[in-house]
Amino acid sequence: MSSEHRKVEGETDLVRDMNSHAIINRNKSAYEMAKKRSEQAKKKLLEEEEQRDSIRNATREINTLKCEMHEIKSLLQQLVDK
Question: Strand pairing partners for 15?
Answer without folding.
Answer: 7, 24
